[in-house]
Design brief:
- This protein is α/β, with parallel strands linked by helices.
- It contains 13 helices and 15 strands.
- It has an 8-stranded mixed β-sheet with strand order 2-9-8-7-6-3-4-5. A 3-stranded antiparallel β-sheet has the order 11-15-14.
- α2 packs across α9, α3 packs parallel to α9 and α4 packs across α8.
Length: 408
């Protein structure tokens, strides 16, 4: 029989967060091994449940949620997103500018599919959340990675971003707060990005899914609140701030200068209609979530569970010889660096395999986030303090053995 091959469009598409190392972990679990998973921000797997009022509201409305909705979504949750945009000082947003989706991920893919032709370029951070690189390539575009500087707390290098703009560049992606680094961008960096977009007539795609998962009393600025003469697409949802990953409830807001984007918005509307609508039960959670008690504040406050786990993971990793890490200001992750002089890693996916095999700890290698050198990995600090202490202890033990094996 002639082999059936995957599409050539997938040749340069990867998503290592759920990639080959995870497949090996699943095989080991089937063989009876217990794996500590630090690879994915699936909050429910770590006992972080959604607010009860969201669950109860969905249960009450479920009997009436069997039908399709408007392709952009129900009016009430879209109106709640408009109110949220007003709180974030994003001007001029109406209900018609809001699209609900099966999580923000669906809308990110939809926004790129509607925009890109072959040869179009999109500026994406390095390291990135790999969905962006994947969907740009799958949409026929070319991902171009701008550098985020570890020495400045993982902030975007505006000079590098500016240098990588070409006549083919259509858009800039920012992930703020950032996954995988936990960086939170100050207003001066955001204004610098807006100025680059303004000068080159670029769209700004802003992923703000962690905008309430902030530590140390910090606040988040939506980049779309800083200008009205640039086109912005802002993505958010319930998965992280409201611990509701599986509900697949996200939204996309089109704001700023829409005068020259009529055709693009028509494309967004067409793709929204083609998928019929987002799941109705998930939509029904949005209004209650945005209007209710914001329990995420308790988790990130000093002494709150997420804040304690962040501080613990940072402290434990910092004590390992040859490991340095920028303390996250936001989100659920950190992106430690392994000193190449002490850890001469040539293939960081193989490094992740070896850690999994020897210590039963699952992480994602740095190159899985389109970081060019094999000297970083992402750690999720969602496990409770006991499990986190055990996990980082196993990593430290593995690294101790690794140093000894590779010492000269």
């Amino acid at each position: 029989m002639k082999p059936i091959a995957k599409s050539s469009k997938l040749a340069n598409v990867g998503y290592d967060i759920r990639g080959p190392v995870l497949d090996k972990a699943r095989q080991m679990e089937e063989e009876g091994h217990k794996i500590i998973k630090l690879n994915i921000g699936n909050v429910a797997a770590f006992g972080l449940e959604p607010p009860d009022e969201i669950v109860q509201d969905m249960i009450r409305n479920l009997p009436h949620a069997a039908g399709y909705t408007d392709s952009k979504g129900l009016f009430a949750p879209r109106k709640a997103v408009v109110h949220y945009c007003q709180e974030k000082q994003i001007a001029g947003v109406t209900v018609d500018d809001v699209y609900l989706g099966n999580g923000a991920s669906e809308l990110i893919a939809m926004s790129m599919n509607a925009l890109l032709d072959a040869g179009d370029e999109v500026l994406i951070p390095s390291p990135d959340y790999p969905l962006y690189t994947a969907v740009v390539a799958l949409s026929g575009g070319t991902p171009v990675h701008y550098h985020c500087d570890e020495g400045s707390g993982w902030l975007p290098d505006l000079a590098d971003m500016r240098a990588k703009v070409t006549p083919n560049t259509k858009a800039i992606v920012i992930i703020n707060p950032n996954n995988p680094t936990g960086a939170l961008y100050p207003d001066e960096i955001l204004r610098g990005i807006v100025e680059i977009a303004r000068q080159h007539q670029l769209i700004v795609f802003a992923d703000e899914i962690y905008d309430k998962t902030l530590y140390d009393g910090l606040t988040h600025t939506s980049i779309a609140s800083l200008a009205d003469d640039v086109l912005f697409l802002t993505f958010n949802g319930l998965s992280k701030n409201y611990r509701s990953c599986g509900y697949r409830a996200g939204w996309m807001v089109v704001s700023g200068d829409k005068r020259h984007a009529t055709d693009y918005i028509e494309g967004l509307n067409m793709l929204a209609s083609m998928r019929l609508c987002a799941n109705t039960p998930g939509q029904l959670a949005i209004q209650t979530a945005l209007g209710g008690y914001q329990s995420i504040k308790d988790l990130v406050a000093p002494g709150g569970r997420l804040a304690r786990q962040r501080d613990l993971a940072y402290s434990l990793l910092s004590q390992i010889p040859g490991v340095s890490v920028v303390k996250p200001s936001a989100a659920l992750y950190m992106f430690p660096r392994l000193d190449p002089k002490i850890y001469p890693i040539e293939d960081d996916q193989q490094f992740a395999y070896e850690l999994l095999a020897e210590e039963k700890v699952l992480i994602v290698q740095g190159t899985g986030f389109n970081w060019s050198a094999p000297d970083h990995f992402r750690l999720v600090f969602l496990p409770n303090t006991d499990d986190l202490t055990e996990a980082v202890g196993r990593i430290a033990r593995f690294l101790d053995h690794y140093r000894k094996r590779h010492s000269t």
